[in-house]
Specification:
287 residues, Beta-lactamase, two-stranded antiparallel ribbon, 9 helices, 41% helix, 21% strand
């Protein structure tokens, strides 16, 4: 009898929770659609696009606008690279304490500090930290070359990131070149939710990944407009007319994942404002 009662209570919880979540987030989809499908006039190029993916990690409530649309990944691709490295480390497939030597020929322009350093050797753990916290392109190239693109892509498919593809080890190749890296807002939100929950990772791997993202240098997007008391672990991406941000956001009222991709804005400043607007709209439900 007690068992039947417990099963009934559990069933009621499952039934009520989605309804509660829908009521709590009433109006959010309308707000996000207004931003994603807004008219931006001369600020954008023909074919501009905004993609949004949101997950409330307590209730599982999701909102997605163009969430399955494929975008150039830019430096967001570094998050799946990081995830594979820690997954492989947990499985004893590689040693993150192992060193990689780099030469002047390995150096890449753009984000990062290794391009200004003398040839040296760094542990894979340190290279991963540089790849995420300051988006170091040279570190990314060294890590991807060491483990191989095929293994990273296979890992993405294994965990359900079916529209993510790493083709360029530099993260600098842009459209219309065919070998640009690509992903979707929903793929990245899936991965961030797995990292936050520790799904498929040891507690040590999870802690390191979140630490790298919490120490992110680029905070112009989702973190910039968060209310006092909120904290964030994020990773951005930037190419010509492409600007993205992806984050795990922590507040007293709950933790959520938010991913905002933009493509086709003529100036990064205007794309940042869009990302800020989305972040503010979602954060208002956690005040």
């Amino acid at each position: 009898m007690k068992r039947k009662l417990l099963l009934l209570i559990f069933a009621l919880i499952l039934f009520v929770q989605p309804s509660f979540a829908a009521n709590r987030f009433y109006g959010l989809n309308k707000k996000l659609n207004a931003i994603a499908y807004g008219s931006y006039g001369r600020k954008v190029l023909p074919g501009y696009s905004i993609g949004i993916s949101f997950i409330d990690l307590k209730t599982g409530y999701k909102a997605s606008i163009r969430g399955n649309k494929v975008f150039p990944a830019a430096s967001i691709i570094k998050v799946p690279v990081m995830a594979y490295l820690f997954y492989a480390s947990d499985k004893k497939l590689l040693d993150l304490g192992g060193q990689i030597h780099f030469t002047n020929a390995d150096k890449l322009p753009g984000a990062g500090v290794l391009q200004w350093m003398q040839p040296n050797a760094y542990t894979m753990w340190n290279l991963c930290r540089l790849m995420i916290s300051i988006s170091d392109n040279t570190a990314t190239r060294l890590l991807v070359r060491r483990v191989g693109k095929a293994k990273i892509n296979a890992y993405c498919k294994k965990i359900g990131m079916r529209n993510t593809l790493l083709l360029d080890e530099t993260a600098l190749v842009e459209m219309p070149c065919r070998n640009y890296n690509r992903t979707t807002p929903n793929d990245i939100s899936l991965l961030l939710s797995r990292i936050q929950r520790g799904v498929g990772f040891s507690k040590y791997a999870r802690a390191d990944m979140l630490k790298f993202m919490r120490n992110q240098r680029y905070t112009f997007g989702i973190p910039k407009v968060l209310p006092r008391g909120f904290t964030c672990a994020n990773k951005t991406g930037n190419l010509t007319n492409v600007l993205h941000d992806s984050a795990i956001v922590y507040s007293k009222r709950g933790t959520y994942v938010l991913v905002v991709f933009t493509k086709g804005f003529k100036r990064d400043k205007e794309a940042r404002i869009v990302i800020n607007r989305v972040s503010s709209a979602v954060a208002s439900y956690y005040r």
